[in-house]
Amino acid sequence: MNWFYASGGQQMGPVDEAALDDLVRQGVVRDDTLVWRQGLPGWQPHGTARPRPAAPPPAAVAPVPPPPASPAPSSPASGGWAGSQPSAPAAAAPVEESRFCSNCGRPTPVSQLTTVSGASICAACLPTVSGAGAAAAQQPAYQQAPQYQQAPAYPAPGAYAPAGGYQQGFIPGQSIPGQTRYGGFWIRFLARFIDGILLGIISAIIRLPLALVMGGIGVGLSRAQDPAAALAALPALFGVIGLTILINFAVSFCYEVYFLSSRGATPGKMALGLKVVRADGGPISMGLAAGRYFAYLLSFFTFLIGFIIAGFDDEKRSLHDRICNTRVIKL
């Protein structure tokens, strides 16, 4: 049976029973760590979802028969003894409750366990715990780190494999209030403005040789005295203009696809703390980034209405976000 567990605000797993037992022995999974498996109604503390086996009841102790009574002498002369009573049987020693060490997993009497950062550590494992953990073990229980009063909301296990750096809590078709913040219209407009400046600089550097060629053709046309010679130079001029447009498109396309597929955001979005993700919170693939770019161009053909609708959508989705089922979140 596979288990999922929460560690550092992240969903980890799946792991099988044996691997989860190893994590318990290593102290990674404690009694208060949230876990989930198929069949449970929701995330539960490990101590509740997998209660530790109770210590076996103590074996019945047979009463010790009393020693034979020694007769007391009835008199000093006879050397006999009288009036002696049999001694009471010794009481059975109480059996102390045992619990499992969170580090090595061995059953240990409760009196020999020390609490370190919420985990029960036996005397043999205590020296291996870090100095900070050992110092914390000497503090009263009320000085330990506060525990959750309510289990944090985690996505259903298996909904997606969380990628590093992406916000948790996405469920397809739903948004989780209080956890997901979407990038609005104006902050996305500012991010596009920053990207536009960067793209203009990059395109200008790449198109510098073409600009020189175009300038030379323009000067030649202005000085041409023969109309036929001027008309003959027009195809070259239009060719340079077309090549310039093609370069601008290629630079913009590569810029968008590269940064969205590798970083999850363009430099303009990264500067403002925005990130583009799928509806389930996963990263953008290269193919999806390419499709989103062409859908982005489609927003221009709708007289910019495709961008404006982001200001009225609950999840701040533009037209290209709706087409590609993506979201722009604010980290």
Topology:
Elements: E1 3-7, E2 10-15, H1 17-25, E3 34-37, E4 44-45, H2 46-49, E5 98-100, E6 107-109, E7 113-116, E8 119-122, H3 131-137, H4 185-206, H5 208-223, H6 227-262, H7 267-271, E9 274-278, H8 286-301, H9 305-308, H10 319-324, E10 326-330
Helix pairs in contact: 4-6, 5-6, 6-8
Describe the structure in your own words:
The strands form four sheets. The protein has a four-stranded antiparallel β-sheet. A two-stranded antiparallel sheet has the order 5-6. Helices cover 38% and strands 12% of the residues. The protein contains ten helices and ten strands. The chain is of the alpha+beta class. Helix 4 (185-206) packs across helix 6 (227-262) and helix 6 (227-262) packs across helix 8. The protein has a domain at 185-330.
Please give a handful of descriptors for the protein shown.
single chain, 331 residues, alpha+beta, four-stranded antiparallel sheet, two-stranded antiparallel ribbon, 10 helices, 10 strands, 38% helix, rod-shaped
